[in-house]
Design brief:
This protein is mainly α and 267 residues long. The chain has a domain at 9-131: Tetratricopeptide repeat domain (Serine Threonine Protein Phosphatase 5, Tetratricopeptide repeat, Alpha Horseshoe), CATH 1.25.40.10. 69% of the residues lie in helices and 0% in strands. The protein contains 13 helices and no strands. The protein has helices at 9-12, 29-34, 44-56, 60-73, 78-93, 97-110, 117-130, 140-155, 160-189, 193-206, 213-227, 230-243, 248-260. The longest helix has 30 residues, at 160-189. The protein is elongated, with a radius of gyration of 26 Å.
């Protein structure tokens, strides 16, 4: 099962940043079809409005290229800064996440104190988030997303971006816990019980607020019983019963323990 993504309305609201320049008209449709998006010297009004038109038409890759040209051709204009951020957003919308990250990080390096810096940092985090794959793949991107979301929360705790970052952090942690569960179950199938214990303990210790904890406790009971460590198996079952008394995971763990210890009383 693939990781479920939540595309934030907070991020999509950035399209409001791409306002046309006051007092200038957009490029005509015929001319837009013939012109080359890049390396043609044009005034900032024409370039920025052409980029805005592409964005409105959902031609995101073209919009990104034109926003890049605003910065390249007019680096000292008041619109260069806005174009940097809109380039990052356009790359994001075209699913070109590496270029979106690069553009947003460039904005942050040049304008670290700008009022839009929280948004740029959040955009970097969401770029990583959107690249998270299923639990069977390497989780490097998941950890990068987690770190980036944490940076948004740490630096701008009262912002609307931090609110969304907290939600996505919970989802990423649940995903990472799912990866540990997948590996733990793999070790169980191979009867490598000690390795499975290490994985399930990590879920309980590191991802204790996720939905995977009840199963992890039950799997710990299974693994400890296979290792012949009855006291630890009892302890896992007791924790499971205390925190998830009505769950099927507890019922199963309790049945396993009862087979070894008929005198055990339910929590």
């Amino acid at each position: 099962m693939r990781f479920s993504r939540v595309r934030s309305s907070v991020l999509l609201a950035a399209i409001a940043l791409a306002l046309p320049l006051a007092g200038c008209s957009s490029v005509s449709g015929a001319k837009k079809g013939k012109e080359n998006n890049r390396y043609v010297a044009r005034d900032v009004d024409t370039l920025y409005n052409a980029a805005k038109d592409r964005l409105d038409q959902r031609r995101f890759a073209e919009a990104a290229a034109l926003f890049d040209e605003v910065e390249r051709q007019h680096p000292y204009s008041v619109w260069a800064r806005r174009a940097q951020l809109m380039s990052a957003f356009s790359y994001y919308m075209s699913h070109n996440y590496p270029d979106s990250i690069q553009a947003a990080q460039r904005f942050l390096s040049i304008h670290p104190g700008n009022k839009d810096a929280p948004y740029a940092l959040y955009l970097v985090a969401v770029d990583y988030y959107e690249q998270i794959g299923d639990v069977n793949r390497d989780q490097k991107i998941s950890l990068q997303a987690l770190d980036a979301m944490g940076e948004v929360i740490r630096r701008y705790p009262d912002s609307r971006y931090a609110t969304d970052a907290r939600l996505k952090t919970d989802l990423i942690n649940d995903h990472l816990a799912g990866k540990e569960m997948e590996v733990g179950r793999f070790y169980q199938r191979r009867h490598d019980w000690l390795a499975s214990v290490i994985r399930f303990r990590k879920v309980i210790d590191t991802y204790q607020t996720t939905s995977h904890v009840p199963e992890a406790l039950m799997r710990l009971t299974e693994s400890y019983l296979e290792l012949g460590i009855l006291d630890e198996a009892r302890r896992s079952t007791a924790v499971l019963g205390a925190n998830y008394p009505g769950s099927d995971w507890y019922k199963h763990a309790y049945e396993l323990i009862q087979k070894k210890d008929p005198d055990l009383k339910p929590s």
